Fold:
Amino acid sequence: MSDILKIGKYEFTSRLIVGSGKYPDFQTTRDATLASGSEMITVAVRRVNITNPDEENLMDYFKDTDVKFLPNSAGCTTAEEAITLFRLTREATGIDLIKLEVIGDTAKTLYPDVVETIKACEVLAKDGFTIMAYTNDDPIVAKRLEEAGAHAVMPLAAPIGSGLGIQNRFNVVFIKEAVSVPVIVDAGIGCASDAAAAMELGADGVLTNTAIAQAENPILMAEAMKHAVIAGRMSYKAGRIPKRPFATASSPVDGMIF
Structure:
């Protein structure tokens, strides 16, 4: 209980966040999410139904769990689109914990439009939303988002769905040093070791979707991600040994018999 992840007014014991896209059905989404131990699942409300009770609704599959829904604005390309989407979603669901993403390049990289993201963040913060903002791996932009009212910043590790892992480890550290809000590494995680590496760099959490949903065994990968995030966090808190360019004996040299 001494290692709680706090995002605005919300608290979590798991530092893994999972996505809901690319699964074959809602039942598999539920099974993988529960196997991951995650307490938060992000949902693209333009693509996955959580607002219409008259159609199959993903929220129905989680009614008996403590998993919180994190609506995201995937598909939005302007600040105004994202603002409108979240206002309508909160009216329909009552959810005020959101993942803000405004995409600038929808054709190839799916990189965020950081200018529009900051604009949307300023308005949504004034509206009382708890905002987790998806961004590039730029510490200057991360600081601007914090100043705009973001309760967490979510720098990409690599392009969404690429599975490339962390492409610039230094920037994760720089972002962590630049902001006082939680840093959640988002996008590009490909396997459990990528998640562990992010946590060992000092990230406060990891979000992954494709790596689980499109694994050969999504349930097993979800469980692997769970343990990777825990191990990476423990390793970071334990403090690694310094790197040296030469060998050091594992056993004492002083007092040798021969």
User: Anything to note?
Assistant: Residues 83 and 152 are 17 Å apart (CA to CA). Strands lie at 5-7, 10-12, 16-19, 40-44, 68-72, 97-100, 130-135, 152-155, 184-186, 205-208.
